[in-house]
Write a structure and sequence with these properties.
The chain contains six helices and no strands. With 184 residues, it is mainly α.
Length: 184
């Protein structure tokens, strides 16, 4: 995972990593390699989403006059993606039912990323000082280290105790990943 200086650079690096993982899934023939890439994609998307929910969207609410509306839309996008990831979790990468959900997921994530990079990030860069963007980048990086690695579509990111639950869920997910070898 790359480490950039400010929040916009950090999240953009994540976006490119997700693009690369989609490419690996689409262009890899062995089912085992596709499965590993899909697992890594899930880990990356979940950690990225949690970090945005905990830090980026509160900043959007604070700095934009229409911040509540934008943050709520972004959270709805995340909820759809997380549900798709949960549905994908039980599918075999060698099976015929794998390609369609991956294509739908890619379309959803690509649209979300494009909107963030073309609209949200330029507005954020204009609304915040470089120092606040760097501090936000530090918080996002820290959040990703402790975030869950598996989809939990029932979680409520807007609840005040979400960060504590997220860290606890992340610990449990990492233990499960360690025992199963997932994400290696």
């Amino acid at each position: 995972m790359g480490h950039a200086k400010d929040v916009i650079e950090e999240l953009t690096v994540d976006h490119r990593e997700v693009d690369e993982l989609f490419d690996r899934i689409e262009h890899t023939t062995p089912a085992g390699e596709r499965q590993k890439a899909a697992e890594q994609l899930t880990i990356e998307l979940i950690q990225h989403s949690v970090a945005e929910e905990e830090h980026l969207y509160p900043a959007v609410r604070e700095h934009f006059p229409d911040g509540d509306l934008i943050a709520d839309k972004e959270l709805a996008d995340h909820a759809r993606v997380e549900k798709m990831l949960k549905d994908l979790e039980g599918l075999d990468a060698a099976g015929p039912e794998f390609d369609r959900p991956i294509a739908v997921l890619k379309a959803e994530v690509t649209a979300h990323v494009h909107d963030e990079e073309q609209n949200l990030f330029p507005r954020l860069r204009h609304a915040c000082t470089p120092e606040s963007l760097e501090a936000l980048g530090d918080r996002v990086r820290r959040a990703k280290r402790f975030a869950p690695t598996r989809p939990h579509p029932g979680a409520l990111p807007s609840q005040p105790h979400h960060r504590l639950l997220s860290a606890g869920t992340g610990l449990v997910d990492r233990a499960r990943d360690f025992l199963s070898g997932r994400g290696r």
